[in-house]
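Methyltransferase domain-containing protein structure dump, as promised
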Amino acid sequence: MSYVAEDVALRLAAVSRHFPVAVDLGSGGAVADVLTSSGKCDTVWRADALAAGPGRPDLVLDEEALPFAPASLDLVVATLTLQAVNDLPGSFAQIRRALKPDGLMLAAVAGGDTLTELRESLLAAEVELTGGASPRVAPFADLRALASLLQRAGFALPVADTDRLTVRYPNLFALMADLRALGATSSLTDRLRVPARRALLVRAAEIYAERFSDPDGRIRATVEIVSLSGWAPHESQQKPLAPGSAKTRLADALGATERPAGEKAGDGGGGRT
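structure tokens r here:
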């Protein structure tokens, strides 16, 4: 979370705006501290799905049923929480509705390559031992899908980019213990309801070590962080020109020679000989 909070600080520093009312959605308070220290926010509300954790949130809420009035917020920062909701398009739409015109949303979610090594190892082990497989690692949306969801929710000037981090562990069991401590165990409704057999986990650990370990024996786990930003529409924002309204040709701007379609470079306009 500290990595994401630092990234939020950098992105916020690049925005020459003041945000009277801001909400830290789901960071456990890490982002609230960043927003307060930035000097760009007058009031910062800390909102979380759980009341537990360091400090106490100002609001305990469900990310799929946000309690904010329409056009009541200037800034919403949602970090590493929205990938767990059942209706991500709906959550984006609610955030968009809660923002004032020209309000900003910054979000960070786990991307599609997150825990890909764990997913592959468990799948290979289960196919080998049972001849079939059950979903054991929840899927994550990829960059293009998330960017499309921003547009679908009605955000203006949407931007999406990604960072890939590598976290190393002694073995698969240390990785799974860390995920369990984070509350990041599988929440899929179609998963098997019985505990995984020991033989499956032992074989998955062997496959993981064979395919995704470094020379020192430690295994690698990929965490992809997709950073998103979007603005509530406002008349002052830049808008794309209508198709066909350009006043300068692309060839002139590039200093290139324009040729008729189908003519090869070097033909000199004579076509085939």
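Residues 2-235 form a domain with the Rossmann fold fold (CATH 3.40.50.150).
lmk if u need the other ones
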